[in-house]
Specification:
Layout (H helix, E strand, L loop, with lengths): L4 E2 L6 H5 E2 L6 E2 L1 H13 L9 H15 L3 E4 L5 E4 L3 H6 L4 E2 L6 H26 L1
Antiparallel strand pairs: 1-6, 2-3, 4-5
Helix pairs in contact: 2-3
């Protein structure tokens, strides 16, 4: 299934979601990463009511798996960074076709996945010994 998104309901979406000069604008890295993070956090629409929960879940995923947001560093490379509350709040109105799940379902899904991965790694290490 494809990941579909809608930015038009974001206040000032042309300024919030895009960078560059008119005619050469491209989607901002924050907007692009937030679209894909909706799948990890099990929240398809950022609203005034849920943006803090979205932020909390994004922090949880980043702590468990690493961030999906990168920015240029001073050496010409890239480094991970977390979303800020302000960035998520500015994207209220972003919508995707991701179906919202409860916090309990979200946490269980990620912890089960983490433990499956850890179990696999443990079996690989002990099999090699």
């Amino acid at each position: 299934m494809s990941l579909d998104y809608e930015l038009g309901n974001i206040a000032n979406y042309k300024e919030v979601c895009y960078t560059g000069e008119p005619g050469q604008r491209k989607m901002s890295g924050v907007t692009h990463a937030l679209i894909f993070v909706t799948m990890s956090v099990d929240i398809g629409h950022i609203t005034e009511k849920n943006y803090l929960e979205f932020y909390t879940r994004a922090k949880f995923v980043a702590a468990l798996l690493g961030s999906t947001l990168y920015e240029a560093d001073e050496h010409g490379g890239y480094k991970e960074r977390d979303f800020t509350i302000e960035e998520i709040r500015a994207h209220i109105g972003l919508g995707t076709n991701v179906h919202e799940k409860s916090r309990a379902h979200f946490v269980k899904r990620h912890l089960d996945s983490y433990f499956r991965s850890a179990d696999y790694d443990t079996r690989q290490i002990t099999a090699a010994a």
